[in-house]
Amino acid sequence: MTSPNSGDSMNEDPLQQNEEWEKSYPEVRTTAQLMATLWDAIVHATDMAKGESRTILFPSMTDQLSNPNYFQALLNHLDVCKDICDTFGITTLAIPAKKSGFTIKSYKTKNAYNAASASDDYQFTPDPYWDDDNFEPLYGAMYNQLDDEDKEKSEEDIQKDPKIILPEIENPIPSSDEELVCITQTWVSRMMSDMGICPFTQGSSMAGLPMGKVYYGVDRSTSCEEIYAAYWNEVVRLEQSNERDLSTTLLIVPEFAFYNVEAYENFCNTLTQPLETLNVEQVLQLVFFHPQWSFRDGGERSGTALAANYARRSPWPMINILRTKQVRTAQRGIPTGLVYQQNEKTLSEIGAMELERMLRLRSWEDLEDKKVNRRDFEALRVAQDFQRTGEVAASDISLQLDTTPAVNNINSKIQIEGGDMVKVIRQALERRLATEDGCFLSGAETSAAMIASDFLIQELDRIAASTSRSEEEVALPQMDDETAAIFGGGSMGSNVDKFAW
What we know:
4-stranded mixed β-sheet; disordered N terminus; 12 strands; disordered C terminus; 11% strand; globular; alpha+beta
């Protein structure tokens, strides 16, 4: 893909103020290519003078951009991005142009309010009601008091448990890209592969279904605009590559929100937002990593459970770009819930403090003697067999649906016919409504209730279809043995309680 910063691009002779610049990109045919080109243009707009504009056209995307739903989804996504960008939406705007493109226009002024200066110090509009003289006496002492309280609390915790003393990170962000990639590859090899955190990763260089190469990219940008451009260009790289030549991409962004995981999560949310609305989810799926990442699944994340967060805690912020096709194939072979439970168990055995120590030292040598045997873990064994053969063994079919052991899982027509599906649903409701707060169902119970619901709906649809004839032809359908068994009657009624809880 040709981007605005290649060839006869925007890096050429600066244009005079108020002079218009226009270029067409007929080679852009996908959403990813459009977004990569657009964000490259937005990034270069920081060098434009006030009033200067540059128009980029996508003639091959006219049909998509003429679609009101698609175009509105695109504008909505850009609006979301504006909320976290440094200049886009403030001094730089993207305006729809000629039904097949955008005009990027600069409204930048020297020392503009609410914009960053050359020294990255923001200039804000004066507030006449703000009294700077009273700030320190009123708030400064309170802030200092909070700092002292935190320090005392920290010292108290250390006295109770000396093991919580952790080493400092000597070199948080190495200056060498080669060193960044080398450390990242070691982390992938030790944590993701050897410990089985990612079931379909083999070493640091191969992953996926089918097995393909892992690409490591590094971008040291610090602004959201630049990272958006880098991200979409990597999506284009993945989109245009054969899956065996490039199975998945790890985009390393070491200097972007390294110390601010909340800002990083906000940025990540803007990447996942357009996946469905712009139909990008048909191409890719995303997984995010950060040194301070915490799962937001509502589960307990203290004590031994804290270690589970290290499945997503990496030496520096990273964006993992996966192929949707491979993700869907993996989901058919092994359930996400089973992998998560296995990871939590594996990481908890190591411990959160030990995992944090290794992360800070950038050394995972202590895991060498803890490498998991994939044949000993159900989830990893199924993944390994599936990756090798492309099929799930008949004995492992139950694992395709949920985390329920095969002996407890209702996974065949014969089993369904032998159970009272109405009773299953009724018991599930009774358990959920038993108390004011309700009672959560176990994995086996949830699986049975979902399957029972599906069968009942299908059966009711079949009955409704059979009675859709005119009233003259209508006759009450006879309930056959199959339907009778599903509803608890018929010749299999004696087995009705076989699957009750």
